[in-house]
Amino acid sequence: MGSELKSYLTGFALAVLLTAIPFVLVATRSDLPLGWILSLCAIAQAIVHLRYFLHLRWRGQKREDLQLVLFTVLVLFFLIGGTIWVLGDLATRM
């Protein structure tokens, strides 16, 4: 089996696992702190996608790849932060 195929299969298995864990916890109405577990699984899954599917590595990567990741994080920060700001403002006006 080629190393690229092995990388894709490993990434797929990790992505399925990181999707199944929160699904099972929510479906069984677990008493664990779901917010933290869901957040950690989401962050881990984002890292899995960057590593195994987009082939971004922290060592020896091109400067353009790093700029792409940093710009994406910046855009996500503004989108999430703006949404929280607007919803918080709307909640105080009600």
Structural class: mainly alpha
Q: Please compute the radius of gyration using only Cα atoms.
A: 18 Å
The proportion of residues forming helix, as a percent range, comes to over 70%
Number of domains: 2
Main beta-sheet strand count, sense and barrel state? none
Describe the overall structure.
There is one protein chain. The chain contains three helices and no strands. The protein has helices at 3-27, 34-53, 63-93. The chain starts with a helix and ends with a helix. The chain folds into two domains: 1-55; 60-94. It has 94 residues and is mainly alpha-helical. The longest helix is centred in the C-terminal third of the chain and has 31 residues, at 63-93. It is flat. Helix 1 (3-27) packs antiparallel against helix 2 (34-53). The mean pLDDT is 88.
Write the layout of secondary structure elements.
Layout: H1 3-27, H2 34-53, H3 63-93
Helix pairs in contact: 1-2
Task: Summarize this structure briefly.
The chain is mostly helical. The chain contains three helices and no strands.
Task: List the main descriptive attributes of the protein structure presented here.
94 residues, 2 domains, 3 helices
